[in-house]
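[step 3/7] inverse_fold.run input=structure_tokens len=431
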């Protein structure tokens, strides 16, 4: 049996693509594996990310590493798919001719045909999970209709395309039947779901229907957009006990000056009003957001305003990125990249210093409480899990000590006994 290895880079949406392609390869008779950098596979496929400079560099370096393994005869054919290949495929094929084929983000049929197999539409949305078996990502749409100044995603993924309502529910049922307990709903823009297919936003209805599937213990939402946020979603989140009190909503900035330059379609006051409305309608919700510093035109005054905003809003989870000047974006065509790199980095570090204090206070407030924790893995005699306020890979974890074995993929009531700046420590009470 031939072996196929997919090295998946970038976001969770890319990971879903990898999982679907793995299923096609399995159906074609391949033994499959993922993210084995020193694989001896007959076929290696690098699923690339092309979002920002660092991601593109990682993708290119990974391709070059596999080229060297191919030259040494350690692997067979080498293919490249994903966002970087979608955007720069022709350039890459000239620069790295050792790769057997560059395919666009959605050209899985081309990959299969190059391998001498047919793409099987009957299993188009079936997957081989690369996550632990108790959680899985559900990509409800692809692409984005927003015109943010800095973002290259629409260039690579095209306009927003919602997946059919019924097919998403069918996929959820299949995942649950396979043992999945947590559904992580993902998209470039959750808050546009359904408008293109049905003429209206159906996100709240979809999320409610997912939560109603027997066996779904947690539903988690990534990534919302502040402009045009469907407020009816908040009622559904409040009413369903198994929809996590968690929302990932990328705000990017708060200064009206920068929000306008970013073409975000929202003001600072509208943002504050939305945050307050969310917290009012869904008491106890954990808000995760992403901010950007160093966008063209960002002044010291803009940045200080952002620092004050972070202090005032007290986001439970926050990430920050220095601006990356990307080709063919609105910024590239209309603005100069006028904030020095060292200033961008210093601003990002300062935001995270402020957030570290907030996060430490949020974590400390949980000490003495009993929280429901989903166990993701075991490390030595310690178990590592998450609360409903934490998403895999990006958020804090709970380190649990127990007097008897715990089962990975199961929920336990954990008494929180300690905390650091981000992570929590606790016991199940079985000691």
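[step 3/7] decode complete -> sequence:
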């Amino acid at each position: 049996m031939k072996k196929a290895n997919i090295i998946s880079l970038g976001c969770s949406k890319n990971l879903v693509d990898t999982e679907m392609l793995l299923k096609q390869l399995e159906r074609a008779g391949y033994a499959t594996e993922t993210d084995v950098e020193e694989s001896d596979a007959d076929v290696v496929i690098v699923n690339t990310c092309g979002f920002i400079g660092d991601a593109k560099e990682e993708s290119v370096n990974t391709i070059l590493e596999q080229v060297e393994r191919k030259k040494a005869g350690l692997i067979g054919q080498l293919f490249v798919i994903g966002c970087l290949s979608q955007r720069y495929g022709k350039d890459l094929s000239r620069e790295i001719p050792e790769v057997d084929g560059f395919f666009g983000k959605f050209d899985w049929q081309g990959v299969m045909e190059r391998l001498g197999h047919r793409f099987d539409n009957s299993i188009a949305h079936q997957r081989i999970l690369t996550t632990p078996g108790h959680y899985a990502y559900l990509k409800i749409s692809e692409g984005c209709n927003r015109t943010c100044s800095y973002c290259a995603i629409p260039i690579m993924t095209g306009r927003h395309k919602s997946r059919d309502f019924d097919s998403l529910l069918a996929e959820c049922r299949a995942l649950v039947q396979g043992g999945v307990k947590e559904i992580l709903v993902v998209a470039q823009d959750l808050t546009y779901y359904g408008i293109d297919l049905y003429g209206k936003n159906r996100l709240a209805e979809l999320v409610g229907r997912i939560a109603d599937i027997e066996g779904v213990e947690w539903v988690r939402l990534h990534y919302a957009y502040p402009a045009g946020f469907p407020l009816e979603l908040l009622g559904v989140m409040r009413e369903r006990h198994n929809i996590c009190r968690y929302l990932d909503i990328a705000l990017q900035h708060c200064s009206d000056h920068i929000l306008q330059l970013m073409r975000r379609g929202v003001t600072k006051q509208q943002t504050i009003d939305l945050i307050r409305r969310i917290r009012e309608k869904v008491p106890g919700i954990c808000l995760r957001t992403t901010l950007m510093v160093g966008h063209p035109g960002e002044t010291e005054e803009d940045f200080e305003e952002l620092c004050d905003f972070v202090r005032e809003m007290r986001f439970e989870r926050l990430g920050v990125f220095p601006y990356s000047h990307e080709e063919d974006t609105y910024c590239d065509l209309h603005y100069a990249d006028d904030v020095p790199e060292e200033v961008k980095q210093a601003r990002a570090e300062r935001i995270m210093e402020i957030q570290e204090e907030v996060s430490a206070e949020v974590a400390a407030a949980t000490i003495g409480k009993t929280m429901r924790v989903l166990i993701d893995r075991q490390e030595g005699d310690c178990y590592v899990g998450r609360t409903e306020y934490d998403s895999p890979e990006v958020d804090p974890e709970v380190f649990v000590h127990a007097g008897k074995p715990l089962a990975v993929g199961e929920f336990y009531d954990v008494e929180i006994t300690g905390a650091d700046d981000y992570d929590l420590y606790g016991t199940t009470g079985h000691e």
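[step 4/7] annotate
The mean pLDDT is 93.
The chain has 14 helices and 18 strands.
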